[in-house]
Design a protein that fits this description.
15% strand, 39% helix, 7-stranded mixed β-sheet, 269 residues, 7 strands, alpha/beta
């Protein structure tokens, strides 16, 4: 898989959602890590998205297998953190449960909840909380993709959507993605038990793609998870509420670091 690597230190695997590419995660996470040295950020493009060829990938199991191979090749047996967005969060949950001794923390933004498909999920209607007439003057192609899911419709949020999300949408292998969607569910499901490391679930109150209500049902599997529902945030939460996004991801990193120090102290004692 094609990927971008930034920094050195503790590996952080960032998994984008369905159709965009690594630039979605790069755009929202690099501002967080700019003030936090000591992390090696890995931003792959999932097969069929970005610059990663689809190959013979034909199911969610194949996507997860590709991620497992990526971890083995780029991280090995070293402890690492996982951050996932939307469908990438579905795959991130599966990685965390399949490698509980290696994944030190899990953070999810606008994740898929209890139900994978939107038709089965509890999602609110789109509600534009921050309209801005300036959006009407933007490129029609951008407006067509941006407006149907944008809760904060300002030129600045639209600019970030264009630079971090739309660029991926425009290069995805749609035929390959349609093939995978026929077998979009993991055969064993993402949760295999209880993930006892620090976790974070960020959801948007106005997210009309994955919603927030069905995500809450996952919490029994994550006894050390913070669960936040942000107002004035939809499926573009990371760019609609960047300050809260950064603060909550930072607090999650604090919890992971604290647990790591405590674990080292216990082992040394």
């Amino acid at each position: 898989m094609h990927f971008v690597e930034v920094g050195t230190g503790i590996p952080v695997l960032a998994i984008h959602g369905w159709t965009p590419d690594h630039r979605l995660m790069l755009g929202c996470l690099e501002p967080v890590f700019a003030a936090r040295p000591g992390y090696r950020r890995l931003y792959p493009d999932l097969p069929g998205m970005g610059r990663s060829p689809a190959g013979d990938v034909a199911s969610a199991d194949d996507l997860l297998a590709a991620l497992e191979q990526f971890v083995d090749a780029q991280i090995g047996s070293e402890p690492f953190l996982v951050v996932g967005q939307s469908y990438g969060g579905y795959l991130a949950r599966a990685l965390a449960h399949r490698r509980p001794g290696q994944v030190s923390g899990l953070a999810l933004s606008c994740p898929v909840g209890k139900f994978l498909r939107r038709s089965e999920s509890t999602v609110p209607e789109l509600e534009v909380r921050w309209p801005d007439a300036g959006v009407e003057e933007l490129d029609p192609v951008l407006v067509e993709e941006f407006v149907p899911m944008a809760v904060v419709q300002t030129p600045e949020v639209a600019r970030r959507f264009a630079d971090e999300v739309l660029v991926g949408l425009q290069v995805a292998d749609l035929a390959a993605m349609e093939r995978v969607q026929r077998r979009w569910d993991l055969s064993e499901g993402p949760e295999l038990g209880v993930f006892e490391r620090p976790a974070l679930f960020l959801t948007g109150r106005q997210d009309n793609i994955t919603g927030y209500a069905d995500v809450y049902a996952l919490l029994p599997h994550y006894p050390h998870a913070s669960f936040a529902v942000l107002d004035c945030a939809g499926h573009n939460l990371q760019i609609e509420q960047p300050v809260l996004f950064g603060a909550l991801v930072g607090e999650w990193l604090d919890r992971v670091e604290r647990e790591g120090r405590n674990g080292r102290t216990e082992r040394e004692g």
